[in-house]
């Protein structure tokens, strides 16, 4: 899918959903600080508006007591959708960066990368100009009950930096990369459960 199509989705959403427009505009006030740790440059961001999302209660009782905000029937009427296979691409109403997207499964199923690595890889290939990422249900996902990925324009989250943590690179067919990455993630899982990864 072309970057222009997604940019149009974002522009239309900002025009039609005032809350998202205001939150996106408030990103201008986000505090950013560049720091160097052991010779490696890092950028830290302080965005008080994100506390609604990052501070959401995600215990079982709280999840059970609220309607799922990623399910189609519970979303605001003004939230635009771009269909992508069995997923819906949405503008994130609590953005980290301009153009922040949430890609929600059309089915209400638990947030789990297991069995969905291929979807994430295809999305990363199809979503031109965006960096796709995943927050595990115990690693910051504010909707641990609904499978979703996120994406931001690549200029905000480049992957070409050299950080001092372990990296794995996979070069092969998409099917083989899916298998290899799935095996790696499974090896990180505690007794076959969801791995603690973002």
Distance between the termini: 24 Å
Global Rg: 17 Å
CATH topology (fold) name? HIT family, subunit A
Main beta sheet, described?
A: 5 strands, antiparallel
Mean of pLDDT? 87
Order of helices and strands: HHEEHHEEEHEEH
Low-pLDDT segments, ≥5 res: none
Q: Into which percentage range does the β-strand content fall? A: 15-25%
> What kind of oligomer do you see?
single chain
What does this structure look like?
This protein is an alpha+beta fold. The protein has a single domain, classed as 2-Layer Sandwich (HIT family, subunit A). 29% of the residues lie in helices and 19% in strands. It is built from 6 helices and 7 strands, in the order ααββααβββαββα. The chain has a 5-stranded antiparallel beta sheet with strand order 3-4-5-7-6. The two termini are 24 Å apart.
